[in-house]
Amino acid sequence: MTDPQDATEGTETARATAAAPSRRALIGWGGAGLALGAAAAGGAVAMTRTGNDVDPAAAEVGGAVEFHGAHQAGIATPVQDRLHFAAFDVDTDDRAAFVQLLKDWTEAARRMTAGRAVGEGAYGGLAEAPPDDTGEALGLKPSRLTLTIGFGPSLFEKFGLKDKRPAALVDLPQFPGDNLDKNRSGGDLCIQACADDPQVAVHAVRNLARIGFGKVSIRWSQLGFGKTSSTTPDAQTPRNLMGFKDGTRNIAGTETDRLAKFVWVGEKDGPAWMTGGSYLVARRIRMHIETWDRTSLQEQEDVFGRDKGEGAPVGKAKERDEPFLKAMKPDAHVRLAHPDSNNGATILRRGYSFTDGTDGLGRLDAGLFFLAYQRDVRKGFIPVQRNLARMDALNEYIQHVGSAVFAVPPGVRDSGDWWGRTLFSEEA
Amino acid sequence: MTDPQDATEGTETARATAAAPSRRALIGWGGAGLALGAAAAGGAVAMTRTGNDVDPAAAEVGGAVEFHGAHQAGIATPVQDRLHFAAFDVDTDDRAAFVQLLKDWTEAARRMTAGRAVGEGAYGGLAEAPPDDTGEALGLKPSRLTLTIGFGPSLFEKFGLKDKRPAALVDLPQFPGDNLDKNRSGGDLCIQACADDPQVAVHAVRNLARIGFGKVSIRWSQLGFGKTSSTTPDAQTPRNLMGFKDGTRNIAGTETDRLAKFVWVGEKDGPAWMTGGSYLVARRIRMHIETWDRTSLQEQEDVFGRDKGEGAPVGKAKERDEPFLKAMKPDAHVRLAHPDSNNGATILRRGYSFTDGTDGLGRLDAGLFFLAYQRDVRKGFIPVQRNLARMDALNEYIQHVGSAVFAVPPGVRDSGDWWGRTLFSEEA
């Protein structure tokens, strides 16, 4: 039903133009009738359909990314500039109430990703009620907002879901060097909000939290101010806070074969409810940037196995030249993370740089909020991280301080579908 | 010498075009000679000169804002989208070393605001030394970066500066309702970095901190993801996290008379070293957004004294209609903050929304990082905040949790000038 191989057939890409709807145009307090009409018309707006095949034309600033598809948007979608990520705990044991929340969330996500406000806009007539939308994104463009939901291992302890937990959703082992803060780890659910305008991403998470009041509460959240990976190979490779280009050899949203091989859960993988989904590993990686900044250029380049300016692998001239791993030091990061050093293990990276104030010692609390999607955590992040944790030269300058893993269900197919239906509907 | 009335004469505004230099083009490891040539040519790039008169054309994304001028950029300059603000403590009592740092910082700021890397780019030949620039902004546009320095009251306890402390730089009183965290308050120095790309702002603060290593350390810092005020009256008024338009009647960067009256320190104000400068009040204002979001639209609009959709004052139709204060509730925020309720007190607001994860109780740690510039703190922020703290209906939904005040010296006049020269040079 959600065979990833079918998705390309349904792909329609259209350039989101300057005619993309403004949130201001689509909703207004005190102008409910008008707003409703405009919102309905919004369905005709040019959008980018997601699926296996993602067109870099979707990178148009201000446009909307299609919410529906075989896969959730926000994975193979061209990486947006900013992130707001939230992990939630479930506070209710009422299964029906939780399923209703998933439906309500889906409807809100459908509207917000299209650049619309939450609710039907009838604010003018309901002065005595709280507004359906908190309002701070009114007037802002859709900004390529994507909202992606994931289910953590602990969710499967609830609602009689124990037998539904995928084998591929393993608890991560404790890696050498981990220094995990439980207040920045785990979670029954997650929402990944990516957008080119951070206010649009923050607005989306905040409104989902508001809708979930009494049923779920935010366990931890993370703002990412700059993307560190790209899924569009022709785009400029972004730099991480160590100043190096990151994700040069990342899986591109256009590489259908590699996505099917390494990212999307296939029909034969099981469980059936996860077909078309993926698994997400989130790691908060603190960088000791003050130490790094006092390290010589040569040491920095040795640590990565690439030169800092161009990003070329050791001994090569250009960023995208094929790396010759044996020319790098045995503990070089690029060498250890390379599929050839990990029996082919490959993950789709989607991380963001963060800066969260200071640590009380005069240092910035800054680093990489690492996000990686994969078809099976046991064949993706775990073997790669085992190798890195063992001997990566970079370990002297970083520390993993937060960790979570989530099963990311397949996409919402159409306007009648909802997040998590394949997990919950058989028993509902 | 820095009479603000003269500044308009020196104003040159030019639209920063798509030809604005890319940081990538201007610097490169391993290509030092080329990079130097390009950096030198950067001087000819179209820029926006700051002074009293600021042209909204400077709002062009990607352009550079001129660093030199009678006033520091980043005050009357059209408000950029993102903020990284850092307060520093001074760790040295060596006056000469501190003055040298101010000179080094000035040179770095001059380069970074022009879209260049720190240092002369000769990285290729110095593999054994740490790079002069941390690198994460290479390839990014200047992004209208402005860097603005301020001196806190505690700085005047050092370096024999006691007699130089301006009378207008008072310690703020404790206001009713304040719940200040000393770890988010005060500071000997501050750097306000504003840019349309947050990575450019973060890069700038991080590199200044790096250059200051051993002499200064970051006391606290704050990322602002979205502007909440505009200094360009024709631009769309941004919304704060309460969903209301903020700063509708803010002082515009083009209002030379109001800037001279309310923002710039005049020759007769004294001390002489502050002529052309201003005073900055920074307040971290936590919003109880979860409570706010469960408040009726009517209550929200009563609290502000404006309608939520259009932003019109009570009883008026349009956002920019003149407010009729008596039509508002006596405790309405707009009424109490209005100059007519404060003997004409007027401040230039430049605040940003923040979201710093969660508070451990399932709530977002979100709110407004309030920044306001004024000619005299005693006639600006203090009377307004006294009035608000006393009875503002908004107080039920907000709390001030951080506070700082800084004397912001005049602008760096030319390539031989440096931050703080008017304060330090007479005795140097």
TrEMBL record, chains A, B:
Its cofactor is heme b. Binds 1 heme b (iron(II)-protoporphyrin IX) group non-covalently per subunit. It comes from Streptomyces actuosus. It holds the Pfam family Dyp_perox_N. Its main location: other. It catalyses: heme b + 2 H(+) = protoporphyrin IX + Fe(2+). Involved in the recovery of exogenous heme iron. Extracts iron from heme while preserving the protoporphyrin ring intact. This is Deferrochelatase. GO terms for biological process: iron import into cell. GO terms for molecular function: ferrochelatase activity; heme binding; metal ion binding; peroxidase activity. Residues 237-412 form the Dyp-type peroxidase C-terminal domain. PANTHER family: DEFERROCHELATASE, DEFERROCHELATASE/PEROXIDASE. Residues 72-225 form the Dyp-type peroxidase N-terminal domain. One of its GO terms (cellular component) is cytosol. SUPFAM superfamilies: Dimeric alpha+beta barrel. InterPro entries: Dimeric_a/b-barrel (IPR011008), Dyp_perox_C (IPR048328), Dyp_perox_N (IPR048327), Dyp_peroxidase (IPR006314), EfeB/EfeN (IPR006313), TAT_signal (IPR006311). Its EC number is 1.11.1.-. Keywords: Heme, Iron, Lyase, Metal-binding, Oxidoreductase, Peroxidase, Signal. Belongs to the DyP-type peroxidase family. It is found in: Cell envelope.
